[in-house]
Design goal:
Blueprint lengths: L2 H15 L7 H21 L26 H11 L2 H9 L2 H4 L6 H11 L8
Length: 124
């Protein structure tokens, strides 16, 4: 490493760790740009979800679930699903991801998988 590079790193480290001094304008701009790129990446990976229209994904059998805000093509399937006792048993026995793969309710499954897809490596 060159001496100039090490001095620059040391200066920036000092700026970050010394709260009595203000960060240089270059460093402030760099941090702001980095935070903006992280925000954009986060929004891309976790798109805004309409919590009302997709609230059924976590538990389609939840009492008080407002079905009227859900898209019509999904409403019919969701109503059938909610009234099928074997589906409720399956929901209790399987993981959310496994339950969402049911072929009997393609629109419900499609929406559920789109919502839980970004969380494939986390607890479901």
């Amino acid at each position: 490493m060159s001496a100039g590079f090490r001095e620059g790193v040391h200066r920036r480290k000092h700026e970050l760790l010394n709260p009595e001094e203000t960060l240089s304008t270059d460093l402030q701009v760099g941090i702001a740009a980095h935070l903006k790129s992280l925000e954009d990446a986060f929004k891309n990976y976790f798109p805004d979800l309409d919590s009302g229209k997709e609230a059924f994904v976590g538990n389609p059998f939840a009492p008080g679930l407002d079905i009227t805000v859900i898209a019509d093509v999904i409403q019919d399937e969701l109503l059938e699903l909610r009234h099928e006792s074997s589906a409720r048993d399956t929901f209790l026995e399987k993981s959310l991801a496994q339950f969402s793969l049911q072929e009997s309710y393609p629109q419900v499954s499609k929406t559920a998988l789109r919502v839980i897809g970004p969380y494939a490596s986390t607890y479901l």
